Amino acid sequence: MKLKIGVQQGTLALMVLKTLDVLGPLHGYGIARRIEQISGDLLAVNQGTLYPVLLRLEQEGAIASEWGSSENNRRARFYRLTRQGQKRLQVETQGWEQTATIIRRFFSAKTEDLS
Amino acid sequence: MTAARRFLIRLFNSAARRVQDERLREEIAEHIALQTAENVRSGLSPAEGRRQALLKFGGLEAMKEDYRAERSLLIIENLVRDLRFATRMLRKSPGFTAVAVVTLTMAIGANAVVFGVMDALILRPLNVPNAESLYGTEYGVDTGFQSYLNYIDLRDRNHSFDDLAAFSMAFVGFDTGGNSTSASGYAASGNYFDVLGLHPHLGRFFHASDERGRNSAPYLVLSYSYWHSRFQDDPSVLGRVVRLDKHPFTIIGVAPPDFRGTLVFVSVDFFMPIVNEELVNGEHLLDARGNTRAIFETFGHLKPGVTPAQAVADLRAVGAYLEKTYPKEFGQANYSLAHAGLTSFGRAVRAFMTGLMLLTGLILLAACANLGSLFGARAADRSREMALRLALGASRARILRQLLTEAVLISLIGGVVGLLGSVTLLQRMSMWQPFPGAPIHLPINPDARIYAVALILAFVTGFLFGIVPVRQVLKTDPYEIVKSGSLGQVGRRIAVRDLLLGVQITICAVLVTSSMVALRGLLRSLHGNFGFETRNALLVSTNLTMAGYSGEGLPTMQKRMLDEIASIPGVEKVGLVNNYPPLIYAAGSRVNVFHEGTKELRPSNVAFAPYRYDVSPGYFDAAGTSLLAGRAFSWHDDQDAPAVAVVNRDLAGKMFGSVPNAIGRHFTLQDATRVEVVGVVENGKYFSLTEDQQPAVFLPAFRSPASLSDVVVRSPRDPQQLAASIRSKLRELDAGLPVDVSTWNTMLDVALFPSRVATVALGVMGAIGAMLSITGIFGLAAYSVSKRLKEFGIRVALGAQRKEVLKAALARSFKLLACGSAAGLLFGILASRVLAFIVYAATPRDPLVLLSVVVVMSLLGLVATWIPAQRALSVHPAMLLREE
Fold this sequence. Notes:
The structure holds two protein chains of two kinds.
Chain A: H1 5-23, E1 26-27, H2 28-39, H3 50-60, E2 63-69, E3 75-81, H4 83-108, H5 111-114
Antiparallel strand pairs in A: 1-3, 2-3
Chain B: H1 2-15, H2 18-41, H3 46-57, H4 60-71, H5 74-92, H6 94-123, E1 134-139, H7 148-157, E2 165-175, E3 181-188, H8 192-196, E4 202-203, E5 219-222, H9 224-231, E6 241-244, E7 247-254, E8 270-273, H10 277-281, E9 297-301, H11 308-325, H12 327-330, E10 335-339, H13 346-381, H14 383-391, H15 396-431, H16 448-466, H17 470-475, H18 478-484, H19 490-527, E11 537-543, H20 553-566, E12 573-578, E13 593-595, E14 611-615, H21 619-623, E15 627-630, E16 644-648, H22 649-656, H23 659-662, E17 666-669, E18 674-681, E19 696-700, E20 708-714, H24 719-733, E21 739-743, H25 744-787, H26 789-797, H27 802-835, H28 847-873, H29 877-883
Parallel strand pairs in B: 3-8, 5-7, 14-19, 16-18
Antiparallel strand pairs in B: 1-9, 1-10, 2-3, 2-6, 2-9, 4-7, 5-8, 6-7, 11-20, 11-21, 12-20, 13-17, 15-18, 16-19, 17-18
Helix pairs in contact in B: 2-3, 5-15, 6-13, 6-15, 6-16, 6-25, 7-11, 13-16, 13-19, 13-25, 14-18, 15-16, 19-25, 19-27, 19-28, 20-24, 25-27, 25-28, 26-29, 27-28
């Protein structure tokens, strides 16, 4: 699956938010793993693309980060959802669902419905 | 909100880069470590696990680029990098940088200075509320002067102005208690401050309601600066009585701090009601409709909705009415609107400043052309570097941005230095008092507008000359250049630069030509024949009204003064002239002269309107004006003797046919006096140095005594000592009489002032122009020599002579110089016609001027090509050929 950068970034950002919402604070690798597990090959070859997205989300205030220690006792950067991120997740989830519904309806429509 | 926050963070991050790079590196390392561990757990070897982890992570550098782009503002980061690179490049070629910066400093500095002066004199309205609807009126040809009664009629009969105010100048002895010093102010109509809409800083202003007839309002309003300097901001001055020319006036108010009067280039000390002017000027100016010296300027706000054209028509209608009603006194004079604050000078000042702005604009253009060709040459030199960068994947846009950054950086440095210089210069100018004793003052405050103009100019010039090499870069073929090691088709690219340089030399030659014309004009005017001799002559100026003399007392006192001064050892001749001698303070007054036997003494029957000077016996000797025929005045030509006159050669010729013919003939004055011509003197200059020959008539001073007079003292003695002895002699005569003594030459400076200023301005322009052509020619010659050094080496090796090498090296520069100079000379001659209005005897058709321009331009060429020529001659073939 090859998505255009803008769309990819948008979906990726939403996935990151959702992941943090569900799993709580995580480091970059953890987030990447989780997204990989659920979305399959979106991040399969390009785990690195996650980091610019994380940075952007942090700059926008949707997530925050701090140093902590990972499972193998090394220093790692942990990301968590902020209240602003929570709100954003809600809004964007709704938006996605709406879009998805419309698109689904559109694709399932038959020729006679369109005429 | 979010976007703004992100922008700020990125902006901040652009500044602090290091720390964040560290964080990313650590995160990536951790990520790879965790993935490797995972891979090892699933059975891979550590090495293979790490390889897989890296593969999965993706392109590291691309990701870092993305990350950086997200984190900070790339544009800024690139800009910072470009700036750093540009600084390095400029530091690497200090000669080039210095030439470019100096060029720009001069060009931008000159523009900022001229703009500053223009802003102060023309663009900026007077510092009063609603200045944009404030207009002055002009009466007659180019002058604001008119009579008081005409002003009253104009004020009451026009339908275009809300109200009209008027003022004249008043020069007085200002006495706060036994300490008379001279001060200057306006005698203003009662509605003056109300028309301007001003409010006093202290106390009150006078109003129209205070005017109840002649000498009814002995009130005085001080200007803020005079209140500050003479009264030390003392608020208790209100109600104090001071004496102006010994007459009591009560101080009723202080004007606001930023109001210095309604003439742009004059700062006054006080304002008094015009109805009391007679007390200080000693003449009944207000009742004489024919006396057009009573009012200096009339101005007012146009009513809302009235266009200037309508106002002019309205004023003309009033003028037509006045002409019909007062045919004797009014004469033919049209009213029109003028620039408030500049009165009659408006047109000349505006024309001069516009011309100057145009010239400085040309300088800037020349500088652009100059730097453009330098930059083009530099870019060509760096074509290899560009080619390499292109080959390594830099985009053309990126390279252009880099070049533009360099250009703008240079122009900004030049702009800032030029601005600093011009601000200093402007500040000096605003402190400058060109004429001692006169309240002249240029109101220049370098402010944000000047800074903005200079910076905008810097940016614009930077872009202008920065884009010259654009085509070159866009056309660059990295493969060709890297392969051949030099630029491909040299010819065409040089042609564009040649054109630029040609244009620049043309502009510079225009500047040099006009400055030569102006200089020559000034020299001529200094050595011209004025009809009097200013060397070894002092002028002793007194105003007897200031000391309380009047009527019969005036001639008696003036005779005593003449006798006393004549008795000083070393004084050869003395003579007196009422008001001012010719050319001083541009104060010529004219008189209507009729042919003998004219029935009706109406304006339409006037034969001539010569300048009139009232002079005492001995004046012609003292002034050095030679008598051509007949006799000069004697002490017997007084009020009881028949009226006599001396005319100048011009009037004698025009009125009576020839000089000998004029003696014994008669003419009639406006008041019907029949005057006999007893003498003829040589022609001279009267009002300004640039005037055409004018007729003049001299009348005996003591037939019509005046309180203001100048005694001309001719003596070979040291002027300062002599001035001291004259002062002490006159103090013995009357201790309360203010006396001004100065040399005639100093006083003449006023008359020469416009042409001096013009000459200095044009001289500076010419010098800058010369500098620009030197740098331009030098740039081109040096460049072409350095490009062709190898070729010269081969030529020399094959036996070429020095002459041939020189010809090959510099022929092009000289050809350009010759063509440019010829074109510039032509344009300069055309432009110089304009100069003739300001500069005396400025004629471009002067072989000396033409010759000197040619000499100057060739000298410039020689200077500019000297170093490149030396370099071309010192070519050592063996060394050069070995080099590559």
